[in-house]
Write a structure and sequence with these properties.
single chain, 254 residues, mainly alpha, 0% strand
């Protein structure tokens, strides 16, 4: 077996052990309320603008493409339903997760990586501070809370952007547009997107923090671990998205 495969399996094993450590420290005291609030502000509140912008852009562009395709068939009244279902099930959680990985996942890896190479983590450990409980757990909790909430925001803003394009630009009847959209978009569609967002939030937080703790070789190592965290977490959420979609589709179409 090639050496690279052994190295990858070794990293995967350390990551699984890291996940076990996160679960183990959850009930430990003291509670990290202040750290959690700070991470929620950083990951959630400070990301509202970029999520709104990306959600509006996706909703408007997707609507523009669909109307152009459906207008020759005189079926553009169903654009709102199609956009709503696509956003709720797929686009909103995925785009939100990718934006948050780029903005906050990289920051997590860089922050922890910098602390590692400057020996701040060693100093905390010398004072008997559990690094996973102090640094990692608040980030994981914040991602589990913020990813689904920001996904809801992306859904809402995406549908607003889609409505602007459909109703004001292409003059589609607003009553029929909204009625058909609310008829076709079900709570189950929204729930599946929120479940994906929770899974993606957990994957993002754990992979980025893990890569930060794996940082070596000074400043260059911080850059390498940050890049690796962004790439691996982005690919991982897409794989997770496919797996979750495979299991959810039979439920959605029962």
């Amino acid at each position: 077996m090639p050496r690279g495969i052994f190295a990858s399996l070794e990293v995967l094993g350390r990551y699984v052990v890291f996940l076990g450590e996160i679960v183990r420290v959850i009930p430990k005291k003291p509670s990290r309320r202040l750290q959690c609030i700070g991470e929620i502000e950083r990951i959630g509140i400070n990301s509202i603008q970029i999520v709104m912008l990306s959600g509006a852009a996706i909703g408007m562009v997707f609507t523009l493409q669909l109307i152009t395709f459906l207008r020759p068939f005189q079926a553009e009244i169903g654009v709102g339903a199609l956009v709503g279902i696509a956003l709720a099930r797929q686009l909103a959680p995925l785009i939100t997760a990718l934006m948050l990985i780029a903005k906050n996942g990289s920051a997590m890896a860089a922050e922890i990586g910098t602390m590692k190479v400057t020996e701040q983590i060693d100093a905390l450990e010398s004072m008997s501070v559990n690094i996973v409980h102090y640094l990692v757990l608040p980030k994981v909790i914040a991602c589990l809370l913020c990813f689904p909430l920001l996904t809801v925001l992306a859904n809402i803003i995406g549908m607003v952007g889609a409505s602007i394009i459909a109703v004001f630009l292409f003059e589609i009847d607003s009553a029929g547009y909204l009625d058909y959209m609310f008829l076709m978009v079900r709570p189950l569609d929204i729930f599946t997107g929120l479940l994906k967002a929770i899974v993606m939030g957990f994957i993002t937080a754990t992979i980025c923090c893990f890569n930060g703790l794996e940082t070596t070789q000074g400043a260059a190592g911080v850059g390498d671990s940050t890049t690796r965290a962004v790439v691996v977490s982005s690919v991982s959420i897409m794989v997770a998205d496919y797996i979750l979609t495979t299991f959810m589709l039979p439920i959605l179409y029962q």
